[in-house]
Design a protein that fits this description.
Length: about 375
């Protein structure tokens, strides 16, 4: 009898131990507890032109003018450190590969003020989730617009190890040029991170990857002409940028923002002019380039090897003149605008470097009497 009682006690104790052990065991996170990886943009270094006028020509001038992004995510067991391209040398985008995220601009019906718009949140499909394991480091990269919105874009493959790369070819028409952006990397995050992550949303700071070339036209006072004489006005009807060796294709590392593998070719861009080009007084400095015809180029150096010139045709006192002018040597840096003055007269045309400045210095709010970065008092952007 004692043997039976002892056996039953052993069995009962065994079940109790199993039950208690099961209570202490951590169950897997249920699908409903999964945390979606979201995205947002903190800045694009601009403070003016709120919605809906947040783009001027082919230049994005506010974070609210970004409507598509390409997203890459890497999960690692170690901290990704600088240089990022070396730290991720053997890792593929195993969390997210070139995922297209989009948002839309929606007009509010019956708004309290006209032309009131709101932006929808960033969305994408299929949705990715933060790894449950908090020891996993997750690093994110972004660029804009998404490659599906850039006809000439080629992305690195999902099997390619290292930081993501985008190969871009300049369009053949100025009106087709776009503003390519990339983000500062957001490194070593998990679902509970709060720096550069807001409630599971990865927050990007975007930068401009290309550069801008802009012109103003300054006719000279010819001879003893009276600048106020209407017959002494210049009428410009043709402006063209040509280069024998212009970088037309290159690859950007989205981890560093550096362009490599540049291929050069001959390019000619005919620049559309505004109606103001039909009558420019001698001695004036005129901004006559249509905003959709600004040149958005790969970073390069204008020098003798590039063979870059401006071709211009204009009328003066009933006579048509055609001239070309070579560029002085000037470095074109990503994120910068370079302004040249085209001086014209019946005797010829010359190009003079005027200014170089960061795009964000052009895009902040300006008072009506402020002096713009080019020193000419013209709001080029």
């Amino acid at each position: 009898m004692n043997l039976i009682r002892t056996t039953l006690q052993i069995v009962l104790y065994s079940y109790l131990i199993i039950w208690l052990t099961g209570c202490d065991r951590q169950e897997p996170v249920a699908p409903t507890d999964r945390k979606e990886i979201g995205f947002d943009i903190a800045s694009l270094a601009s403070t003016r032109s709120p919605l809906p006028k947040s783009q001027r020509g082919n230049t994005l001038i506010h974070k609210d003018s970004i409507f598509s992004m390409g997203i890459f995510g890497y999960s690692t067991s170690y901290d990704v450190t600088a240089p990022v391209e070396t730290s991720l040398l053997s890792v593929t985008p195993n969390l997210i590969y070139n995922q297209k995220a989009t948002r839309e601009l929606e007009r509010i019906e019956n708004p309290p003020e006209p032309d009131k718009y709101i932006l929808t949140s960033w969305g994408y499909n299929p949705v990715a989730y933060w790894p449950v394991d908090l020891s996993v480091r997750n690093s994110f990269f972004a660029y804009s617009p998404h490659s599906s919105d850039i006809p000439s874009a080629i992305m690195s493959l999902n099997t390619s190890a290292g930081t993501p790369k985008l190969t871009y070819t300049l369009p053949e028409e100025p009106t087709d040029m776009i503003d390519v952006l990339y983000s500062d990397p957001v490194l070593n995050k998990n679902r509970n991170s709060t720096e550069k992550v807001n409630d599971g949303r990865v927050v990007y700071d975007m930068k401009h990857a290309l550069c801008w070339l802009s012109f103003v036209i300054a006719p000279v006072v010819y001879g003893n002409d009276d600048p106020e004489d209407p017959d002494a006005a210049y009428s410009v009807d043709w402006l063209s940028f040509m280069a024998d060796n212009l970088p037309t294709t290159a690859t950007i590392d989205l981890g560093t923002g550096k362009w490599t593998n540049m291929i050069t070719d001959f390019r000619q861009y005919n620049i559309e002019l505004t109606d103001a080009a039909q009558s420019i007084k001698p001695g004036d400095v005129a901004l006559v380039i249509d905003e959709n015809s600004r040149l958005t180029l790969l970073p390069f150096e204008i020098n003798d090897a590039a063979g870059a010139t401006i071709d211009i045709t204009f009328w003066y006192r009933g006579t048509q003149y055609y001239y070309f002018a070579p560029f002085p040597t000037q470095r074109m840096t990503a994120g910068n605008i370079v302004v040249f003055v085209i001086n014209i007269s019946p005797d010829g045309a010359t190009l003079t470097f005027q200014s170089e400045d960061r795009i964000e210095n052009w895009l902040k709010e300006w008072e009506a009497d402020s002096d713009f970065p080019d020193g000419l008092g013209l709001d080029i952007y």
